Structure formats: structure tokens, C-alpha cells
């Protein structure tokens, strides 16, 4: 205890520290109040550590060391916390890494629209007030074949809004096989409860038939709902009712069919080796009345929820108060418009929209990319023994579950300590690089790495080698 006491006695006072040149210099970066908070917090942390008999040695309480800590904290306070990450995981739509990266055209348009004012809500032809939704409406209609469209903040919001506007206080019928949870916080039954609609489950987990829906319809039924399973597959002894059959039934009863499609696929990818997935157009053609999907999954744009469908229903949705609460901002709209514009020429979309480009890249493309990566690596990192290895990458984001793309990774080998240290160094550095640790090696799947990022990774690897040689 005596030792703790003497350590405590050694701790400098806030005022004393504030008189140090090294500390006063920090006032150029940060306000005085915040600086005092950081100094106090640093000393308090040390004090509690000493009292808890944590590993505190005399050198930790030296003024020099304390000033260092304060400087680091101030520097961190000034850094932007959300920052660039290089994705070497091979998961194209990585939810934790911000889903779809934007293409260069969308980036340009965001820059242009954000640096000054825009025509967000003015009709430049008439000079009168306009609607923010009008700018991309026609484009969405052209690409999907729908009668009308509206865009909101995200797809979960789109589903909540559509259900609130169409089915509040009434019943909505859904198959038990489609009561999915997507990404941990979006559960169909819970969203339904929030909207005020009453869930009526029909069928069994693996099978539901048209007659199940038919038997459940009452005068209180507001809609039939179909939800794309997104992140899981139903295999084996199964039966699912098609959108067409649901539409035929709903038409007789004069109620709408809602279809929560999720991914927002606009181009059929079967010729690129993908299993069949309904495109938005396919679902519109099936006659569904209200269709919802995300802007930043397979569509490859920004976070947004797009609702397309029959004019009658979109008008009802558009005039609901929640639309205002879920409205999209100008950055989202401009990036989405720029992304959608590329779909007018599908061959262009495939090449220019990063998500699609990464998804259709072939195994040979990936081998070439991996070889190019290895070629760029400097000799100074020989110690990491880089080589090329076959691997598989995934689409992610709840799209094409179970589908794997053959790919290549650049693999780094070394002692277990080196590999663990390398992974940590790359992940926590700037820019951060996210790779995979697998069977004692470090892997970077080249599929999700953008060409110009390879040189950055090389530099980070060199930094790691330099640092570990010093130790
Ligand atoms: C992803 C997904 C959602 C949620 O969309 P967000 O854009 O993440 O809000 C809802 N429904 C389905 C079927 C999905 O796949």
C-alpha cells in the first residue's frame, strides 16, 4: 500500500500540466475545456489503476509518459472516426464494412451536388416548388417497368412505411417460411408490429400453398405479403406460392400483394454463372402491387429503400406522414440517380458499378489480379513469404446465400506471432486493411480489393516489416 501511496503522490496536478509548453501547444488543435477534460481523465485513469493495484509501474506515472498519453488522446479526438477500410475479406456486400462501395460517377455527382446548392425541391423549368422524388422517378420506372416509385431512407423503412400506409389496424397474410430475420435487427414480425398491422401466419416453415392464403383471407385482410428469404435457403421438401398465384388471388379479393424483394437486382446474372434470382422487373411483371428493395445491396448504390408499384398504392404511401420522417437527403438521391443512370446500358452497369464488377469477375481475372498484386510487392517484405492461393468469395449482404465464387488470395506466411501482429497492424492502421486469418496464415482475397488499393497495402506491409525489425 505504501507503494501505491507514493505513486499517487507523484501524480501531477491538472494545473501543473497546463503550464507545460507541450500541453499548451495542444490548444492549437483542441478547445481549452476539452483539453482540461482529457488531462483530468488521464490522471483519474492512472489513479484508479494504482488503487486497483493494476500493473502500474513508476515509469507510467512520469510526467513525460503522462504528457505522451494526453497528446495521443488529443490526436485521436481530432481524427475522423469513420474512415476508409480496404476490404480483403472477399465478401462483396460486407454489412460491417458499409455494404456497396460507390462507383466513380456517383462519387463525382455527390461531390458536385454537395459543394453548393442543388435543385432538390425546385422545378427549374417553371421556377416553382418541385418534389425531391421526381428527379429519379422516371429513371426507376424505365428500369423496373413499374407505374410509380418513391425512395426512402432504407429498405427496412420502406417496408415499415408501406405496411403502415396500407395495413395499419388490419391483417397481413404471410407464409411461415418467410418470417425472416435480416442482419440481426430487421425481423419481419417485429416490423409488422411497429407498423400496426396484424400478422397472420399461414402454411408451414417448409411449405405453403395458395389455399393456405385463400383460407386466411377475411374482410379484415389488408394485404398479402411475400418476403424474399435473402440470407437463407429453403431446400428439400418445400413448396412456395409464386407471386403470380398470389396476385391472381389478391385481385379477386381486391387487396394488394406486397413483395419485399430485399436486394434490388436489376440485371439477370445467370449468364455470369449465378443461380436465378428474380429481378425487380420480373416481380413488377408478376403483377405485385407494392415492391420494396434496398439501394445498397445488389443494386450497388447508396443506402436507400426503393418502393415501386401500382400508382394507386404508391400515392397512398407517398402521402403517409412517415414518408417525411424517412425521407432521403440530396446526397443519397444524387448518388442513387448516378448509379441508376448506368443501368440504362447494362453492359456499362456491369463494368462501372463496383458491386457488379466484383461479382462477375472470373476466376482467371482474379488470378491475374493476384499475380499483379504479388508483382507490386517490394523485396523488403520477403520475410512475409507472399504466395497465391485459390479461395472462394461470397456476395454477402443477404444476397445469393450459399453461392461461392472461385477466387484467389494473396497469402502471407510467418511465425504465429508475426501473423497475428500483422493482422492487427493492418486492421488498426490507416487506412485499415481487413483480411482473414486462416490456418495460421493471413489472406487477402483480391476480389474485393480495388486496383489502386494494392499499392497502399504494399506500403502498409512495408511499414509492418520496418516496425517489427525495430523490436
Ligand atoms: C436487406 C433486407 C431488408 C432490410 O433492408 P435495409 O436496406 O438493410 O434496411 C429488408 N428485407 C429484405 C428481404 C432484405 O433482404
UniProtKB/TrEMBL annotation:
Coiled coil: none annotated. One of its GO terms (cellular component) is cytoplasm. The modification N6-(pyridoxal phosphate)lysine is found at residue 297. Residues 8-47 form the L-seryl-tRNA selenium transferase N-terminal domain. This is L-seryl-tRNA(Sec) selenium transferase. Pathway: Aminoacyl-tRNA biosynthesis; selenocysteinyl-tRNA(Sec) biosynthesis; selenocysteinyl-tRNA(Sec) from L-seryl-tRNA(Sec) (bacterial route): step 1/1. It is found in: Cytoplasm. Converts seryl-tRNA(Sec) to selenocysteinyl-tRNA(Sec) required for selenoprotein biosynthesis. Its cofactor is pyridoxal 5'-phosphate. Belongs to the SelA family. Its main location: cytoplasm. Its EC number is 2.9.1.1. It comes from Tindallia californiensis. Gene3D superfamilies: 3.90.1150.180, Type I PLP-dependent aspartate aminotransferase-like (Major domain). InterPro entries: PyrdxlP-dep_Trfase, PyrdxlP-dep_Trfase_major, SelA-like, SelA_trans, SelA_trans_N_dom. It catalyses: L-seryl-tRNA(Sec) + selenophosphate + H(+) = L-selenocysteinyl-tRNA(Sec) + phosphate. The gene is selA.
Amino acid at each position: 500500500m505504501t507503494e501505491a501511496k507514493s505513486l499517487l503522490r507523484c501524480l501531477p496536478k491538472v494545473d501543473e500540466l497546463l503550464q507545460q509548453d507541450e500541453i499548451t501547444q495542444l490548444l492549437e488543435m483542441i478547445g481549452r475545456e476539452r483539453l482540461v477534460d482529457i488531462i483530468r481523465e488521464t490522471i483519474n485513469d492512472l489513479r484508479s489503476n494504482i488503487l486497483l493495484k493494476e500493473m502500474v509501474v513508476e515509469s507510467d506515472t512520469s510526467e513525460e509518459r503522462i504528457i505522451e498519453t494526453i497528446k495521443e488522446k488529443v490526436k485521436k479526438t481530432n481524427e475522423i472516426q469513420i474512415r476508409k477500410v480496404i476490404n480483403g475479406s472477399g465478401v462483396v456486400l460486407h454489412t460491417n464494412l458499409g455494404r456497396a462501395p460507390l462507383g466513380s460517377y456517383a462519387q463525382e455527382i455527390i461531390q458536385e451536388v454537395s459543394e453548393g446548392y442543388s435543385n432538390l425541391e425546385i422545378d427549374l423549368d417553371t421556377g416553382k416548388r418541385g418534389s425531391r422524388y421526381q428527379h429519379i422517378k422516371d429513371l426507376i420506372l424505365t428500369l423496373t417497368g413499374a407505374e410509380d416509385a418513391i425512395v426512402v431512407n432504407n429498405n427496412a423503412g420502406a417496408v415499415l412505411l408501406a405496411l403502415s400506409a396500407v395495413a395499419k389496424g388490419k391483417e397481413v397474410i404471410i407464409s411461415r417460411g418467410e418470417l425472416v430475420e435480416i442482419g440481426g435487427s430487421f425481423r419481419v414480425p417485429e416490423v409488422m408490429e411497429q407498423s400496426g398491422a396484424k400478422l397472420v401466419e399461414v402454411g408451414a416453415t417448409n411449405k405453403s400453398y395458395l389455399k393456405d392464403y385463400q383460407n386466411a383471407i377475411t374482410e379484415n385482410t389488408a394485404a398479402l405479403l411475400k418476403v424474399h428469404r435473402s440470407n437463407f435457403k429453403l431446400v428439400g421438401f418445400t413448396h412456395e406460392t409464386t407471386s403470380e398465384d398470389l396476385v391472381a388471388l389478391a385481385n379477386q379479393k381486391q387487396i394488394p400483394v406486397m413483395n419485399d424483394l430485399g436486394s434490388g437486382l436489376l440485371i439477370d446474372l445467370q449468364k455470369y454463372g449465378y443461380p436465378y434470382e428474380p429481378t425487380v422487373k420480373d416481380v413488377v411483371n408478376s403483377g405485385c402491387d407494392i415492391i420494396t428493395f434496398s439501394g445498397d445491396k445488389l443494386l450497388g448504390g447508396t443506402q436507400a429503400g426503393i418502393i415501386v408499384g401500382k400508382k394507386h398504392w404508391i400515392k397512398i404511401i407517398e402521402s403517409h406522414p412517415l414518408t417525411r420522417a424517412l425521407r432521403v437527403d440530396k446526397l443519397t438521391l444524387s448518388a442513387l440517380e448516378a448509379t441508376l443512370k448506368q443501368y440504362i446500358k447494362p453492359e456499362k452497369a456491369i463494368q462501372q458499378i463496383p458491386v457488379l464488377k466484383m461479382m462477375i469477375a472470373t476466376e482467371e481475372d482474379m488470378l491475374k489480379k493476384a499475380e499483379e498484386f504479388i508483382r507490386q510487392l517490394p523485396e523488403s517484405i520477403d520475410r512475409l513469404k507472399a504466395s497465391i492461393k485459390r479461395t472462394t468469395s461470397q456476395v454477402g449482404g443477404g444476397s445469393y446465400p450459399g453461392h461461392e465464387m472461385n477466387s484467389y488470395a494473396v497469402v502471407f506466411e510467418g511465425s504465429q506471432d508475426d501473423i497475428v501482429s500483422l493482422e492487427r497492424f493492418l486492421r488498426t492502421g490507416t487506412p485499415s486493411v481487413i483480411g482473414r486469418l486462416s490456418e495460421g496464415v493471413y489472406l487477402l482475397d483480391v476480389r474485393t480489393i480495388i486496383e489502386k488499393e494494392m499499392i497502399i497495402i504494399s506500403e502498409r506491409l512495408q511499414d509492418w516489416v520496418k516496425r517489427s525489425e525495430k523490436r
